[in-house]
Amino acid sequence: LLSFLKDYFVILLSFICFLICIIKVSINDWMFLYFFKEKCYSFFISNICVFFFEIGGFVSIFFSCVFINKFFFGNRILYFVFFSFFFFIFFLFFYINSLKIFFIDIFFMFFIGFFIFSFYMVIGLISIESVDKMYSSTINSIISFFGYIGVTVSCYPLGYIIDYSWNFYFFFLFINIVLIFVFIVIFFFKV
User: Fold this and answer.
1) Smallest Cα–Cα separation from 159: which of 32, 7, 54, 13?
2) Long-range pairs for 99-102 at CB < 8 Å and ≥24 separation?
3) CA distance 83 to 78
């Protein structure tokens, strides 16, 4: 176990999974409140917007492997770089969007879910393929452990940040997105 933790590859993947889980769970848990309080949508419309975040994730699970094999020729790291860039762009436009038109928010939530859920699935593939078959469960458990630490960070600490301002919430998520992109680029050049 300690030999895995000394490997930069495991540390990078664990930290990327930690950040991805923070973003995924914080959007899933807190966006309803954002739509309800800040955009003044009804309960139903707020839930529909978050529902399309999940639908985008569902669609991405099916198509991410096709994208990797067809367009990226099996290069999962390049796929990560490409999708993290577009995830940042869609999230930025979602943040900038001040219109209270729920169709636009549904559109953004779908693509934000599309990009973040594909990360979560492909990080498991990368971790399993990178080690010997005998250690694949161990590496996946280590990376998932850090991911679940990210899930806990997205609960109380993020709720505390939201009490101050939604702008702090989005700033926190933007920092996580930029860190994901930086660590993926570092990972891309190390592999």
Assistant:
1) 32
2) 100/39, 100/40, 100/41, 102/35, 102/39, 102/41, 102/45, 102/48, 102/49
3) 9
When pLDDT is averaged across residues 138-155 and rounded to a whole number, the result is 87
- Token digits of residue 91: 């999230």
Mean pLDDT, to the nearest integer, of 40-45? 93
C-beta neighbour count of 96 within 10 angstroms: 8
Compute the half-sphere exposure of residue 53: CA atoms within 13 Å on the CB side of its CA.
26
The model's pLDDT over 78-93, given as tens digits with 9 standing for 90+, comes to 888 888 888 999 999 9
Distance (Å, whole) CA 153 – CA 173:
12
Q: Which DSSP symbol is given to 39?
A: S
**Long-range pairs for 160-167 at CB < 8 Å and ≥24 separation?**
162/30, 162/33, 166/34, 166/38
Contact present, 188 and 72 (Cβ < 8 Å): no
**What does pTM read for this prediction?**
0.88
CA nearest 183: which of 26, 32, 8?
8
* CA distance between the termini of the chain: 21
